[in-house]
Amino acid sequence: MTAPAIDGDTEIVRRSLTEPECFAALFDRHYAAIHGYASRRLGPTLADDVAAETFLIAFDRRGSYDASRADVRPWLYGIASNLIARQHRAEARQYRALARAAAPAADAGHADRVAGRLDAQAARGPLAKALRKLSRGDRDVLLLVAWADLGVQEAAEALGIPAGTARSRLHRARKKIRAALGGGFDLGEDTIR
Q: Could you give the dihedral angle defined by the CA atoms of residues 65, 71, 74 and 75, in that order, rounded to the nearest 10 degrees?
């Protein structure tokens, strides 16, 4: 169903209170701009979610919209900015928690496994710090390859970038991580697929 033609953002918000389908006109008018802003701030991977959630929140809060404001764009950008800030805070918290996580007690397993766990625990804090310092693009490729066990081509597809760009980002990320960890760790260069 096509949204009815309505002039003026404020009128759309007002009418959407009794005719919710009218809100689609605001979505049609402003989604591309909000998505573009989110994409520039977070990259294309998270922009879809942030843009969609912006309009869900706006729809839920349309009853409290200040009708003296003729243009809803500042309101929508404010919602989007808050969602973007929340995303950045969550990511920073995750890396800080990883950096300070206490080492679990070693189990009574094989000596090599214990030694490997101890090495990994020793690297956890510096690794989290190094991950936090990587650019978002480099970090995304590295983590998709390392944590999601994707190949470089799959990571490129996941991020919507060329495979060559993904390979460059992965190489750069591994080089920076290796330097931060003192060069003594295997970063899986032989696992590129």
A: 20
